[in-house]
Amino acid sequence: MTKIPENERNIIEQAIYLPMLLTVLQRDLSAVEKSLIKLKKPYQHWIENTIRNVQKELAEVKRYLHKNNIRVERMKSDEAFTMYLFLYKGYEEHCNYFNPRLRNKVEELMCLYLSTSSPS
Asked: What InterPro entries does this protein map onto (predicted)?
């Protein structure tokens, strides 16, 4: 049984998903810059604005974790699972995440952030 309340678990999971989302967005930005698209700037600005929004959110998550003495560490991964260690108020909890679940959650967040980011 987990000792971590659901609201704090959601914040902890953001500390996992948001860095992954930033990596994807930065790779996509690089792909747009190298692509044969005629008008790259609107796409670049859209992705850059989304990156800034994700970075702001991640900074808030990190502040919250630091303030509440919560740590998240990636332990190990294989083809199917990635294990994380959560240090929460003196408790250690090991959690395995199914890699397709991580990818799907990052994709879901990407859709959310891209739809709320203004391209200007």
From this structure: YhjD-like (IPR058600)
The model's pTM is 0.90
Say whether pLDDT at 100 is over 60.
yes
Which residues have C-beta within 8 Å of that of residue 54, sequence separation ≥ 6? 18, 21, 22, 25, 113
For 87, list phi and psi in degrees, rounded to 5.
-105, 110
pLDDT, mean of residues 39-44: 94
60 belongs to a structural domain: yes
19, two tokens: 């860095």
Please, which residues have CB within 8 angstroms of residue 92's CB and are 6 or more apart in sequence? 85, 86
Between helices 99-116 and 6-34, what is the axis angle to 10°?
A: 70
pLDDT digits (tens, 9 = 90+) for 56-86: 999 999 999 999 999 999 999 999 999 999 9
User: Between the CA of residue 93 and those of 2, 57, 112, what are the distances in Å?
Assistant: 8, 24, 29
pLDDT at residue 118 is higher than 90: no
Number of domains in the chain: 1
Measured in whole angstroms, the distance separating CA 103 from the mean position of its chain's CA atoms is: 10
